[in-house]
């Protein structure tokens, strides 16, 4: 199927599956255009044959073929176009284990399959092309409950569970839009495996794009100079290139794998899109491969703040307990990156290296990037106070939480507040 940029084409194939492996017949979709098809800088900058081709990946999707269906539905191609537009516009790439919150049936029906996980395609191996390396990431449709489990634990763990349930994907993770039950309804024992995994591993979700903002309450509201996160007058404050890459890398992938709760986090390095164990480290790190350390931009000084006010929409606020329990209590960090500007909020634990927030100065800002260092004792208290965030059906907006002695305030606000740039 041809289409406008960013994808030149989405090819559709009838895949006979593998009866010996209990893989049913299905439709197989493959994108073309996220990788470099031309090598002439027409769409992607050509950086050589050894690095990634374009964004380094193409998307695939496997859809169960319905009885009597003679032609593949075209909606998966439109879905892939939407994901490609996000990649081109944000320059954020996808990796195996990532999740995409879609909040709508993927085929615009009444289906429970409303979100996506990403994994390596079981048949399409990485390819070395004249313009670089291309890997193939398969979209896997999941229910809301499965998405939440992936956020609270990790995407790879949920993908492994989906592989064990034939009607939920099976070994090749084929999406069935007519699936009416979650894997936890099909097999209640799987929830126990997720709960144990969260307790043992924590969460590998290191950041999300979100509707969020923060204010420096240390200064009078009328003091615009270096005082708040979103705007200086009407001009948005910009992050330095290094900071932007740092945050983008945090959102792109988790930075550690933790095998036991009593052990410190183990950093990971990426090779061909996969995580491989490396020597254990006693501290998590905000460093990334493309940004070896946080080096403040010479024109933006790091400021220590006395009091801060954090603002989130309901969806973003609902992830705060995950951030605290699944990340900070495991010695890790978690970043909210605003979808409406350069604002970023990173929560860090006392064991995170490379942070500019410290125990002495737990609130620190570098331009519009705020870091908040929380001790384990305070995290436990916050989890108790924020318990109602786990029951969104009983939630009424706006909602405010305050810890006066810590000079910290958190507000959960309607989406409309964040749609107004002058909020």
UniProtKB/TrEMBL annotation:
- Residues in Suppressor of fused C-terminal domain copies: 192-412
**Start and end residues of each stretch annotated as Disordered:** 258-289
Question: Which part of the chain is the Suppressor of fused-like domain?
Answer: 3-179
Q: Name one Pfam family in it.
A: SUFU_C
What biological-process terms (Gene Ontology) are attached?
A: negative regulation of smoothened signaling pathway; negative regulation of transcription by RNA polymerase II; signal transduction
Give the record's GO CC terms: cilium; cytosol; nucleus
Q: Where in the cell is it found?
A: Cytoplasm; Nucleus
Q: Compositional bias (Basic and acidic residues) spans?
A: 275-286
Q: Which UniProt keywords apply?
A: Acetylation, Cytoplasm, Developmental protein, Isopeptide bond, Nucleus, Phosphoprotein, Ubl conjugation
Keyword field contains Nucleus: yes
Q: Which family does it belong to?
A: Belongs to the SUFU family.
Query: What protein name is recorded for this chain?
Result: Suppressor of fused homolog
Native species: Nestor notabilis (Kea)
